[in-house]
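Operator note (shift B, R.M.): manual run for Aromatic ring hydroxylating protein requested after the automated queue skipped it. Running by hand, logging everything below so the morning shift can see what happened. Input copied straight from the record, untouched. If output looks odd, do not overwrite the archive copy; leave it for review.
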Amino acid sequence: MAEQRAFKEQAMMALENVVDPELAVDIVNLGLIYNVELDDQGLCTVTMTLTIAGCPLTDYLYEAINEELMGFDQVDKVKINLVWEPAWSIDKMSREARLELGV
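Run finished. Output pasted below as returned.
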């Protein structure tokens, strides 16, 4: 349990390197990442959403997420679990992201 929590914290820090190029804010502070889990077989599942359906940056974000998480020795594969519930809103953004975007 402690290992899973430590991995999640490290993974979330790594995902702060994935920046939405349209907003210039990382996906963690935008509130797009809902959960990160690692199973015993090395499968890292990222549960996330997007700001809008049909986001043109989906492929870019998936590739960037995969690149960041595959940098962990214990990760053999990354799976993106894209969800629409709960729906994303500006309320999911961190205080820093809101200040940076002037929201």
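Quick read of the result: The chain is about 30% helix and 20% strand. Strands lie at 19-20, 25-26, 33-38, 43-48, 77-82.
Leaving this for review. - R.M.
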